[in-house]
Amino acid sequence: MNHDLLTIDLTCSKMKEIKIELYKSCLDFVNQRIETTDNAIKSARESANDDTKSSAGDKYETGRAMMQQEIDNNQLQLNEAKKLKIILDQIDPEKQYDAVQLGSLVITNKGNFYISVSAGQLKVDGVIYFAISSISPIGAKLLRLQVNSEFNFNGKDFKILEIH
Fold first, then answer.
1. What is the tens place of the pLDDT at every residue in 77-131?
2. Strands 156-163, 105-108: pairing kind
3. β-strand 111-116 against 127-133: which pairing, if any?
4. In the chain, where are the structural domains located?
5. If you write DSSP's letter for every residue of 107-155 in order, what string do you get?
């Protein structure tokens, strides 16, 4: 094997490791959201049940309605987090891509993007990556583009240097 092929192989191997780390970080982010909202729902239900035992009249009805509203809001957040989990379940972090799609790691001249779920800024080995949804404004611009493609976003010119 010549030196150039070895370098490319090592780079692909390293990028695969980075993608796996990014995937795990996104999964942790989503699982934490699921756990937090699930706990908030349980807590609100317990509070509502405790109010049932100790209250009567209008005060009871108002408190119960507020608890139900809190449960409903948390249920919506829980459902959204579960949708994110479904999106992550569709990603194979070891897969290599030629064009940008769900699961791609995109290296540009202006930043690094992991097309997955909107989990914000993530750091792997001291390098910053942005976990973004494919339906976010920049995610939608990136979809289906290939290496050396150029695009403008928010007045900035981007060039895709690598896709993994």
1. 999 999 999 999 999 999 999 999 999 999 999 999 999 999 999 999 999 999 9
2. antiparallel
3. parallel
4. 3-163
5. EETTEEEEEES--EEEEETTEEEEEEETTSHHHHHHTT-BTT-EEEETT
Residue 140 pLDDT > 60, yes or no? Answer: yes
Determine the 3-state secondary structure of 13 from DSSP. Answer: helix
Evaluated on CA atoms 93, 95, 97, 100, the torsion sign reads: negative
> Tokens 């060039």 identify what position?
159
The type of residue at 132 is I
Look up residue 116 and give its two tokens. Answer: 């997955």
Quick one: tokens of 55? 């209250």
Question: Which secondary structure element, helix H or strand E, spans residue 72, and what is its range?
Answer: helix 57-89
Which two structure tokens, joined as six digits, stand for 136? 């976010």
